[in-house]
Amino acid sequence: MAGDPIDGQILLLTAAKSGVSPNRLPDLLDRTQAHLVPAREEYRREYERIYETETFEAFLVDWGHWDEIGDAVGLDDREQSAVRRAHEEQLLRVGRRNDREAEFETALEIREPVLIGPEGSDNDGDGDEDGDGSGNGDD
Q1: What is the pLDDT of residues 84-139, one digit of tens each?
Q2: How far apart are CA 27 and CA 110, in angstroms?
Q3: 54: exposed, middle or buried (C-beta count within 10 Å: 0-12, 13-18, 19+)?
């Protein structure tokens, strides 16, 4: 999966800001996705889905939820912070590309994002699979 649903530029940016090796971060993200993908239906029932494409679903969760994820996946504080930051940076990138940056930034003032990609996906995480800028992946 190589860090899906987070794209390569976000991986590099997050690694630089977090102090987690750029070679290690994709593995941490993959481990996190392995935990999140089976819980997708629970997230759909429990949390607001702020964005959805064929590439990933983005949910807004309560502050502290990443502590639970980090404990379940076995991440230390620095690793957890890096994975959380990658999810946040990816959502903001999608917001910039789809003219929703202000909306997403406001939402992130009170909640945190969790992005769940499909199993076995191979994508760049920008939500624009067909390159038309719509973010819907339709041709």
Answers
A1: 999 999 999 999 999 999 999 999 999 999 999 987 543 344 444 433 344 444 43
A2: 28
A3: middle
Tens of pLDDT, residue by residue over 31-87, are 999 999 999 999 999 999 999 988 899 999 999 999 999 999 999 999 999 999 999
Structure tokens at 33: 């996705």
Cα–Cα nearest to 117, from 71, 51, 18, 65? 51
CB 55 within 8 A of CB 113: no
CA distances from 67 to 72, 103, 112, 120 (A): 9, 25, 11, 25
Tracing tokens 């994709």 back to the chain, one arrives at 26
Q: How far apart are CA 90 and CA 39, in angstroms?
A: 20
Question: What Å distances lie between residue 31 and 12, 16, 26, 107, CA to CA?
Answer: 18, 20, 9, 26
